[in-house]
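2024-03-11 09:14:02 INFO queue: dequeued item Copper-binding protein MbnP-like domain-containing protein, len=263
2024-03-11 09:14:02 INFO validating residues
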Amino acid sequence: MKIVKLSIALLMCAIMASCSSDDAEDLTGETGNIILKFDNGVDGNDFVFNTEYSKSNNESFKLETVKYIISNVRFKDADGNTFMYPTEDNAFIINEANANNAGEIWVELTGVDAANYTEITFGIGIDQARFALGAEGQGDFLEQAEAEGMMWSWATGYKFIRLDGTYSDGTVTNQALNMHMGSVGTTLDNYKETTLAFPNSIVVRNDKTPEVHIVADLMKAFDGVQSVKFSEGYDQVHVDEVETPIIATNVAAMFMVHHVHNH
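2024-03-11 09:14:37 INFO prediction written
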């Protein structure tokens, strides 16, 4: 009986040692990739260009352009450590016109430190520190933003989100709608960040590339933290110091992680 008990004890010690060894997995220097899938929708439905969507205040809208900038993407792991994607490559334009057949716009991040990550943080727009680097300090992203119509002038800065289309209400039909929210140089900072928890950890290894499905509810740009009326001036949002901070706050709250895949 003592021999049996001793054998069981030795077996348990071996199992515990093995688990301990697994827990202490050395990931030093190992990297992998992460795919972010941005999926624009409206009130839980897939977004479709030039489809009429009803909002509050007896107003509706149709959109023919949907673009926004995300930047400063970073991840927090289970131990509280943060990995920031390299700054020079850490700005992306999410353009609905580039969506695949599933309605997703993919952003592939390479060279991410191997870890088990529990949340993602990213900014909407360009922060003041990056803007302060001047036009020469923007790298290739400045040219990309200009080509995509996501700039006013350098003095005014980037358009963080661009929604173009028309709106209707009880008195007017198909009136021009242009929401171009951004900071205004250094005088008005509308850069916002959002942090989204993953429903389960994503596992980044050199042979594992997780996919993060992020849904953006475009309705919340108009009917979000604060509802706005197109008929009260929010049909043309550009550099106004009252309107743009409201839209910036709404836009920052329109994202959620729907699900993740570990491959």
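2024-03-11 09:14:37 INFO annotate: Residues 1-6, 17-22 have pLDDT under 50 and may be disordered.
2024-03-11 09:14:38 INFO item closed
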